[in-house]
């Protein structure tokens, strides 16, 4: 920016999402001169980074969620944020809650060169009813806070094979009731049909699994309807993957089972006019490491500079087109938010409805305003529960309803495996972060492996981790028992 202050657009590789927002604010805070970020101070850099963390997700900080948001940033690091969609508004809770989203913990957020500390962040509603002012966040530089060097995260993947799939459905209740044993026999048949590979090509490897949708394994009293399945084969070559999945599909169509009456074929198929679908190469996370930089190595250098060949981070400028330059380099100066009289201290009066003391049995999902799950990096899933009023939140918190032990029980993991678990008062929220386990689970819901795995790759059926909240949503809470 300082080398070419008349820029119109910046294009960068995928890095730290708040970076463009922080850089643009620092560019103007320094008067378009190139100076070290640490000269901004912990509070100003913390405010810029906090704003960038929110803005990089657009209008997720609003309720209802907006497609976009706008921030007005002050020189002291405080900022006002509001949604751009009609009918949406930012509240103190919705803005504070953004630090829960896709993060392992909501109060300390790690990034290149340090951590964003939100423990001192404060949120105030503005009189327009749709905007919130935030201030108080601190960015603690790693070399000053804990003596650690600047670190950059490396991510990468490798090809682990090729995939083919088939899709279809079962509707016979006799078959649906015995799918585990049926799939075992299907796999045995596929093994038998490919037994010659051990003699012909010892390098050939393959695996086969089934994704099952619609079978209610947790309540056998409910009448089973149609069950949808996706067979997935992973093999060392595309042709072998297709051979395996074709064999498995045939076994699903014509395989016999105890009590069988429908003998004309088991599997409804033909979606899209394809029996088998070749999916191509299958990639899997293989690099996810923090790399320590040498002193000064984190600074970017323009390609062509005398020292650029030796530097780790390099960039270049290109002219594209001949349109007029945008007058974006003369921002309105907003020194501090303190002198602004549009702030109201009645910040929670409009946002927070009153609630009665709870009694009886409730599902946690009926008590929560938001209950969700999402990836936090490729190896973790984070669970968020937000409540609409302080009364409900305090009851949930004070009765120790949500604990590490409860999360471990619901998700069949050990307490020691939980990455983070706790309450976050600014958002009236509870968060727990757990490791991702084997992507494939059998139809009874039991994990086939206790190994930690990354999102994506073989057997994945929830790449965003957004469907893992149901155990929490269906958790029963008996307030009468708790109050005794």
From TrEMBL:
HTH cro/C1-type domain mapped to chain residues: 397-418
Start-end of Basic and acidic residues biased regions: 329-338
Transmembrane intervals: none
Biological source species: Talaromyces amestolkiae
Disordered, as annotated region: 329-352
Xref: InterPro entries: AtuA_N (IPR010839), Cro/C1-type_HTH (IPR001387), DUF4387 (IPR025496)
Segment forming the signal sequence: none
Name this polypeptide is given: HTH cro/C1-type domain-containing protein
